[in-house]
Write a structure and sequence with these properties.
The protein contains 2 helices and 2 strands, in the order βαβα. By secondary structure, it is mainly α. It has one domain. It has a two-stranded parallel sheet with strand order 1-2.
């Protein structure tokens, strides 16, 4: 199994341009995940 590396955050583009280890850049992935967790927890109330 080959691991895929995803860079997230505001500086992801800069870091990804300096290495071949990063396959995908998604600057909003962490924020999307936090929103999903919030929505799941809000639905329980």
């Amino acid at each position: 199994m080959i691991a895929r590396v995803i860079a997230t955050g505001g500086l992801a583009d800069r870091i990804a341009s300096e290495t071949r280890a990063i396959h995908t850049v998604d600057p909003h992935l962490t924020l999307i995940g936090l929103r999903l967790v919030y929505e799941l927890n809000s639905a329980e109330c």
